[in-house]
Automatic annotation (TrEMBL), chain A:
The keyword Transport applies. CDD domains: ABC_NikE_OppD_transporters (cd03257). The keyword rRNA-binding does not apply. It comes from the Bacteria. This is ABC transporter ATP-binding protein. GO terms for biological process: peptide transport; transmembrane transport.
From TrEMBL, chain B:
It comes from Paracoccus alkanivorans. Pfam families: BPD_transp_1. It is a multi-pass membrane protein. This is ABC transporter permease. Its main location: membrane. Belongs to the binding-protein-dependent transport system permease family.
Amino acid sequence: MTGTSLVSVRDLKIGAVTDAGRKVEIIRGVSFDIAPGEILALIGESGSGKTTIALSLMGHARSGCSIDGGNIRVGDHDVTGMSEARRAGLRGTEVSYVPQSAAAAFNPSKRIMDQVIEITAIHKLMPRKQAEARARDLFRALALPDPDGIGQRYPHQVSGGQLQRLSAAMALIGDPKLVIFDEPTTALDVTTQIEVLRAFRSVMEKTGMAGVYVSHDLAVVAQIADRIVVLKDGEIQEVGTTEQIIHSPHHPYTRELLAAFEPVPHVPVGGRDVPEDRAVLEVSGLCAGYGATINGEPKAKVLKNVNFRLERGRNLGVIGESGSGKSTLARAIAGILPAYRGSVHLGGQKLEPALHARSKEDLRRAQIVFQLADTALNPAHSIGTIIGRPLSFYHGLRGAKRDARVAELLDMVRLPATLRHRLPAELSGGQKQRVNLARALAAEPELILCDEITSALDTVVAAAILDLLKELQGELGLSYMFISHDLSTVEAICDDVLVMYKGEVVEALPATRMSSEATHPYSRLLISSVPQLDTGWLAGLEQDPELVAAFAQR
Amino acid sequence: MTVSSRSTRFLRLPTPRNLGYSFNWAGRIGLAVMLFWAVVAIAGQWLAPYPPGEIVGWDYFGGMSREFWMGTDYLGRDILSRILMGARYTVGIALGAVTLAVAIGVVLGMIAAVLGGWFDTLLSRLLDAFNGIPSLLFGLVVVAAVGSSIPVLILTLTAIYMPGSYRFARALAVNINTMDFVTVARARGEGTAYLITREIFPNILGPVLADLGLRFVFIVLVLSGLSFLGLGVQPPNADWGALVRENIEGLSLGAPAVVFPSIAIASLTISVNMFIDNLPTRIRDRSD
């Protein structure tokens, strides 16, 4: 095996020194091989060490980390034994890297072409003319529009999906033997993701390069990888071909990952008849936007005439891609961004558009929970203070009564009561999101606006949060408005779904029959673009090119 | 992992190190020198071997001797005594001015960041315009108009350094203000006072303290500059800047009378910087 493989990693150990000066092992003895032309996927949750391993293939360890043991061979080069100068020579010509955020990887003040061919200039591979011709060939191979002219543009003049493909062109121009893809489609919308994945696949097939594809998304990996390595806590759990991992996983952790991926269809709790006047939230003709107001209308209008109604005890999902106005909708309902037209009724009572005009009681009844638990919790306050504040603010609880209620709320979100003395930085992502929920529950609201609350979490953790939300709904009779770009999450918790596109609701559907009943072309495009856990899905996917051209912002 | 490290923390003694408030040697040296000058500022009166205003030696610009440890000045007064007494003026005035400047600046800065709109614009432009006046020139005009006294000096220095502090605090607070936890507090219906004291202030404390240290040093230097021009503390009293000025002719004679006050200024400013730069990470990087 070692004789024929392109890359071999043996007993790799990578350690890091924390701020407190403590040594921790990030990668604990990982070994694998990559055959020439093979695409290997590294799958795992955040903190599993997948990116660290991928970077180590270039001989690079992030600051604070060091390669402590084992060896890495790429082609004929012993990466671990080399000097830093020789490693630098390797990068771009033998091994190259496609980062997660292409937007952050491009210099906004230089033309794209200059950046794409930079590698050929650094390594003195070929004259500039030849390099530019080669770059244009790559642009064509990656299905970029206007391959001859796109190089003259600046990074902000192309879309996110195009930029990601351009960063792949940058990685491929030095004709490397191995390309590392570090979550290259994670930041993209689903409709864009398809095009990028297709381009990656075809170019890798044509050139016959080997690849390492780092991702947390099994469905994406299934489309592109030949073999999958499942990682957890810096150790390999399971290695196998893509087919085997997806259809007959051996390791319990792999099974858990797959189970978290399968959406559990939501059974409405409020299945009984609800009287017509029991709408918890009613929005009609809502318009909101940003920027300076002229004649009572803001310059940049985001929401355009949004109407919907949410029955008590039921859940409404709002789906759409980035820029569709879903978060703005939540902000307008919460009053953070005052709507300039239209009305919001909460439990039959009209809410003032602006925050300061609303009464404390109105504010209490609708709570908002944000996507990033890290920034939604004040790092200077303890968990007890964070959850306790709405208690004293809305309900006037003090002292021992308040402490008891804080413990009760922590218990409700399945966290130990001792956690209340800790600071947010000492909690994991999932725990922070639970604290975030507990703070919203402290107000005893009727409606919780959830803005992508599971999007930043690992699949297994996110599934647990969704279960918690369902449980709480049963106990407290809450209603959720659930904003997400992830259709399977919405399917798992919502009764009804609104599909948003450019600030308008294009379609309202029951969640269970989302894929079968969607009639609006955009909803159909969006639903069909969600990757399926099936190796043949991308190859077999057919989308109407006109539809794609009309709606996808590629 | 977190749980185990947490439980061991409770078993250990609550020393600064175990609480995460320890700092390195450079910081400790800085703190020691600062404390030394603070003690001198308070107790200088009783430590001084001679009355600071009295001519005790017959030799002007006398060298270092057993009698006069740091030599004598241009009139034959003991430099050591004058430095010990000058510490009171330099440290006291600078401390008073920096406290006022930073307190006013930070509070206004946070209010401007939270309220935004015309209040922010108006205040910012006003203070920007004020910032445009050269500090020494401004001090010169004020002292020339009202006369020099300690309250006037403190207020003048406060006025000179407050706009910078405001700008700094506002820039930090604007960043914190856009964070989700502030949005959540706003959506909860919290008032401006709660937002600035509980949500924003704890998260800008580290940089603000660093700024306070830097500003203290600048104030010491400007105060010395004012005294050097004869506008600071008036004779027969003298702060360190004034000591340098009165004895500047001694420079060509290599008199210790001009060297030691300069060393005093340098040691105070450098030690404050050393301390501030090495503040415990727990305080310094809270928002990270």
